[in-house]
Design goal:
4 strands, single chain, two-stranded antiparallel ribbon, mainly alpha, two-stranded antiparallel sheet
Length: 154
């Protein structure tokens, strides 16, 4: 069975995912249409934050946590997940006692880095979003106005 983002996040925090396990997932899902999408959840925004910070003063893991929070908000704004699932995921992230203040970043500052992401094809940004069961999936069908909104939603 496929793990949800929530289950994956909890298991990753509980133990380090080894390179062998990641390689198995990548091999099974080379086109990022299934389980591999969950591995890349939050990475588009995380990579943009790292680049904006010139790869200084932030770890990859911390940037990805911010990215997961942003994607959860976009998925909520898109109506893909309901408020209770969004809140559950947000509460889980907060319970890890990590820095969760991604709103210190502005979408406008990250936009140029986001559009240079490897998931941009034909000028269209593909994001790993969350569905109603908190499974990750890749799509370029979303309202681009929700990207900056995600940074402001309370």
């Amino acid at each position: 069975t496929q793990k949800t983002a929530y289950e994956m996040l909890r298991s990753l925090v509980g133990s380090e995912m080894c390179i062998r396990d990641r390689a198995k997932i990548v091999t099974k899902d080379e086109k990022e249409n299934g389980i591999r999408a969950i591995l890349n959840l939050g990475h588009t925004f995380g990579h943009a934050i790292e680049a904006f910070k010139k790869y200084k003063g932030i770890t990859h893991g911390q940037a990805v946590i911010y990215g997961i929070q942003i994607i959860a908000r976009i998925s909520y704004l898109e109506g893909l997940i309901d408020k209770s699932k969004y809140k559950d995921l947000d509460n889980t992230i907060h319970s890890l006692e990590l820095d969760t203040d991604f709103q210190k970043f502005k979408y406008q500052d990250l936009k140029k880095f986001i559009m240079n992401d490897k998931k941009v094809t034909g000028g269209k940004l593909n994001l790993i979003m969350l569905d109603k069961n908190l499974n990750g999936f890749k799509t370029n069908k979303f309202d681009s106005k929700n990207l900056p909104k995600a940074f402001k939603l309370n």
